[in-house]
């Protein structure tokens, strides 16, 4: 079979990395074909104006426990236990040929990828991490942040926060103790401005179920704007299974239902999400069977209580995403980072299930505690993770095995950082709830990365441009190419890096005379 | 293979027979019942008794004979001869497919007479199909199934060799198999029993749990003692007689490999636990559980909320404590009871009555109610630490 060129560049994946890689290329006039595995619509998000309306809706149970009762017995984090999250994550394990041990593997086939259910935290790496990064991300952070709309990131404004976070922030600003930095969470949420297809946040508090207004950014919100370019083609329902080469072209083999398709282009950009991208790249490089290091952030969560708020009525409006973002210089000299959330937008079960009371009491107690709780996550840098990913050839789509392991060092550091966080919180009027500290298993942070690190040593690596070692024309633009995971959420960094790689690629392609420029 | 548009059935009013006839009629087949009593509307009845010849004037085209009747009183030789006479007559009448319902216990040297008899009969029916049926459950609470369901209600069950395995198969699945055999899908001697070996004690425990929501303590009894007890029941007045034959039938069943035969007959056998949950008694028990648990979570259960609860548990009811749930709710969610109570709480919370109950009153009133609940909880805690572990 001879392959005809379907585009100058094929991008695999429509998540934050894929979309960020598409913009510089499309704007430079490069013909781009984006292949996306999504083949089903995701469930619609609730359109209630306020949390109070939501709580009063007799049909709310369909979203909270599922029509088939499937969500009723969910031991998962409330973030993953919604119909939207389930639909977003559905089918990934099978498509990836995934098996895991002591690792929670999270991936999505949906349009927009995991950003459909992300926490929208758009943090930049710290100065030290950026200095170690093999390229300058500064201008690319700015470009991406302008594109997606990022609010917060600066001094917290108590007026813009819900009561427990507001009180916490006010008391923080009256203090001065080093090593604990607190800001308004830099969220990819439109506040006080509208954009095409996206409305401003109204603080309806239903963030958990997906934002019906589109105030919370996800990558699929950018697809309509991209698709207006005549030289940008988007094809959904394409599960990319394998990469090959044919007469100097890179070939992408995809499956759409029972049909097999081949697409060819001089350049392929992989942005299918770290796990899927790694599977495609490693098999293309002929490195199947070789164990790869897979970074994830050691992660945990803890609850703080602000006693004077106990028993307040649940608010009509609130905000379900992160409100405050902190970084903590731990005594061990490691940076930890995390986010403070309110608990008043969560289903009560998220709190009640952890309480040792009998159920009727637990529900009442959860209801009384919800307005008074501040929940905090805490992340450590990915270098403290110890996971191994192995890709194997098996049929067209391959197979992947992940063995997760949390080292005692990581567990110790995580515990120490939470102990330190608890001390800082106590001075700000928030008391750690005994027994609330929970250390999550590896992978539960949903930030797998750095399997094909830029500038990495060994054959399974990429260069500073994200180009795969020894495979001409194949670039990695997602988390797989990150050289390391900082303690801070990596999504904005992945997007900035994709923007950087694609920008350089666009410049290179435009200086190539034989490239047919789109009219 | 031709579809048996016309079924000629003996024993058509019995446990399996009635289900077979009802299904055949639903599928648009015509049914002739051979027997003493007429059957349901829509069936044709020919008066006949075991030992009679195959009735004349029954059209043999596209017809199949299914012989379910069994005379527990008749002598062995009479019974075998009667069946042989029926099958010979059916063949002469041009009925191509003849199905004999045998038993999993059919063996030449079976412990029980029934098993030996079924085996001997199989040798006398020529090229007819024989289905060796396992332990059948489901449908109306009669026959062996009815007896087991009744035994499962006992507070304590003395049982002969509870570890001996049986191969349960649902009544609907047996009917699937009989109709497939009647349609000529597979001939010869075939096992129509569940593919899985289940300890007989577990079958009864499953029934107790899924039909009654309770645990069933079983005391193993040696076979010899059980037979002695059977003899005693026969001699003592005023207590029901337990048939020695039934006891031997249970004790004498040998495992058979049924997977290939089930595949040949096209019968898919689901696990017993899953099917029991959908039987009326299983459904009732699950709703009763939902009612108790939702009440424990603090709301009055409505039918809609109960359905919501039931939907979360396709595997049916669990054994729940007889004591008040506040005394024995486990502290964590790592036991089935702990998990289910948490699910009930989720359902309660995400409901209009739950929202109303939780939001009612001023801040002070709500906190006072919580304090009262909490105080009672504190009193119950020592009990829960002991009882909640089970």
UniProtKB/TrEMBL annotation, chain A:
It holds the Pfam family FAD_binding_3. Its cofactor is FAD. Residues 6-45 form the FAD-binding domain. The keyword Nuclease does not apply. One of its GO terms (molecular function) is FAD binding. Residues 446-498 form the Glucose-methanol-choline oxidoreductase C-terminal domain. Keywords: FAD, Flavoprotein, Oxidoreductase. Belongs to the GMC oxidoreductase family. This is 4Fe-4S ferredoxin-type domain-containing protein. It comes from Sphingomonas ginsenosidimutans.
UniProtKB/TrEMBL annotation, chain B:
SUPFAM superfamilies: NAD(P)-binding Rossmann-fold domains (SSF51735). PANTHER family: MIOREX COMPLEX COMPONENT 2, NADH-UBIQUINONE OXIDOREDUCTASE 39 KDA SUBUNIT-RELATED. This is Epimerase. Residues 8-105 form the NAD-dependent epimerase/dehydratase domain. It comes from Sphingomonas ginsenosidimutans. GO terms for molecular function: protein-containing complex binding.
């Amino acid at each position: 079979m001879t392959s005809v060129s379907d585009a100058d560049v094929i991008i695999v994946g429509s998540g934050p990395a894929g979309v960020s890689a598409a913009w510089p290329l499309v704007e430079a006039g490069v013909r781009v074909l984006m292949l996306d595995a999504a083949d089903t619509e995701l469930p619609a998000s609730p359109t209630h104006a306020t949390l109070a309306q939501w709580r009063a809706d007799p049909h709310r149970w369909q979203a909270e426990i599922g029509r088939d009762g499937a969500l009723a017995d969910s031991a998962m984090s409330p973030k993953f236990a919604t119909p939207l999250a389930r639909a977003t994550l559905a089918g990934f394990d099978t498509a990836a040929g995934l098996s895991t041990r002591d690792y929670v593997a999270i991936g999505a086939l949906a349009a927009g990828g995991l950003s459909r259910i992300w926490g929208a935290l758009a943090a930049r790496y710290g100065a030290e991490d950026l200095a170690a990064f093999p390229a300058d991300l500064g201008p690319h952070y700015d470009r991406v942040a302008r594109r997606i709309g990022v609010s917060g990131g600066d001094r917290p404004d108590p007026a813009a926060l819900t009561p427990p976070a507001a009180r916490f922030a006010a008391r923080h600003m009256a203090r001065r103790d080093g090593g604990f930095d607190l800001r308004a969470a830099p969220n990819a949420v439109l506040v006080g401005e509208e954009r095409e297809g996206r409305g401003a946040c109204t603080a309806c508090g239903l963030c958990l179920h997906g934002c019906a207004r589109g105030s919370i950014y996800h990558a699929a919100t950018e697809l309509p704007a991209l698709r207006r370019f005549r030289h940008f083609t988007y094809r959904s329902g394409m599960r990319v299974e394998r990469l090959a080469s044919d007469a100097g072209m890179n070939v992408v083999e995809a499956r759409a239902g029972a049909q097999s398709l081949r697409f060819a282009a001089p350049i392929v950009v992989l942005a299918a999400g770290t796990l899927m991208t790694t599977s495609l790249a490693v098999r293309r490089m002929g490195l199947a069977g070789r164990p790869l290091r897979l970074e994830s952030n050691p992660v945990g969560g803890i609850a703080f209580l602000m006693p004077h708020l106990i028993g307040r009525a649940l608010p009509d409006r609130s905000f379900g995403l992160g409100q405050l973002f902190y970084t903590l210089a731990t005594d061990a000299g490691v940076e930890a980072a995390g986010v403070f959330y309110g608990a008043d937008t969560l289903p009560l079960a998220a709190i009640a299930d952890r309480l040792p009371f009998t159920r009727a009491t637990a529900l009442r107690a959860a209801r009384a505690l919800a307005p008074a709780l501040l929940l905090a996550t805490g992340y450590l840098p990915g270098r403290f993770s110890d996971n191994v990913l192995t890709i194997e050839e098996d049929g067209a789509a391959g197979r992947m095995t992940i063995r997760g392991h949390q080292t005692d060092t990581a567990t110790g550091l995580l515990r120490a950082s939470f102990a330190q966080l608890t001390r800082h919180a106590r001075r700000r009027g928030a008391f750690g709830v005994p027994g609330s500290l929970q250390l999550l298993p590896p992978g539960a942070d949903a930030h797998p990365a750095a399997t094909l690190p830029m500038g990495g040593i060994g054959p399974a690596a990429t260069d500073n441009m994200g180009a795969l070692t020894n495979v001409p024309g194949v670039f990695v633009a997602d988390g797989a190419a990150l050289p390391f995971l900082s303690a801070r959420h990596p999504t904005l960094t992945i997007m900035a890096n994709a923007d950087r790689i694609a920008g350089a690629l666009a410049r290179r392609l435009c200086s190539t005379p034989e490239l047919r420029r789109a009219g | 293979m031709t579809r048996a548009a016309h079924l000629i059935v003996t024993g058509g009013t019995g446990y399996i027979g009635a289900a077979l006839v009802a299904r055949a009629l639903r599928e648009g087949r015509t049914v002739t019942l051979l027997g003493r009593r007429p059957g349901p509307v829509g069936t044709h009845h020919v008066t006949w008794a075991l030992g009679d010849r195959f009735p004349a004037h029954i059209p043999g085209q596209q017809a199949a004979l299914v012989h379910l009747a069994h005379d527990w009183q008749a002598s062995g030789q009479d019974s075998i001869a009667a069946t042989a006479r029926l099958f010979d007559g059916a063949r002469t009448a041009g009925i191509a497919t003849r199905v004999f319902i045998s038993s999993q216990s059919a063996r030449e040297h079976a412990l029980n007479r029934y098993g030996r008899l079924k085996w001997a009969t199989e040798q006398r029916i020529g090229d007819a199909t024989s289905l060796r049926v396992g332990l059948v459950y489901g449908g109306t609470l009669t026959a062996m199934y009815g007896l087991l369901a009744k035994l499962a209600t006992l507070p304590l069950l003395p049982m002969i060799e509870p570890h001996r395995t049986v191969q349960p198969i649902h009544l609907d699945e047996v009917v699937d198999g009989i109709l497939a055999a009647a349609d000529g899908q597979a001939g010869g001697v075939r096992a129509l029993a569940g593919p899985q070996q289940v300890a007989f004690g577990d079958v009864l425990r499953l029934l107790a749990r899924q039909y009654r929501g309770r645990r069933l303590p079983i005391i193993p009894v040696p076979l010899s003692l059980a037979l002695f007890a059977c003899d005693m029941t026969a001699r003592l007045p005023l207590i029901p007689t337990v048939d020695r034959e039934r006891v031997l039938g249970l004790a004498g069943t040998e495992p058979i490999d049924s997977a290939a035969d089930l595949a040949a007959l096209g019968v898919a056998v689901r696990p017993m636990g899953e099917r029991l949950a959908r039987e009326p008694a299983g459904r009732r028990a699950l709703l009763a559980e939902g009612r108790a648990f939702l009440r424990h979570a603090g709301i009055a259960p409505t039918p809609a909320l109960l359905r919501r609860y039931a939907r979360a548990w396709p595997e049916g009811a669990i054994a729940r404590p007889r004591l008040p749930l506040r005394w024995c709710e486990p502290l964590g969610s790592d036991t089935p009871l702990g998990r289910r109570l948490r699910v009930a709480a989720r359902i309660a919370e995400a409901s209009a009555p739950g929202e109303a109950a939780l939001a009612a009153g001023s801040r002070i009133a709500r906190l006072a109610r919580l304090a009262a609940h909490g105080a009672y909880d504190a009193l119950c805690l020592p009990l829960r630490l002991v009882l909640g572990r089970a």
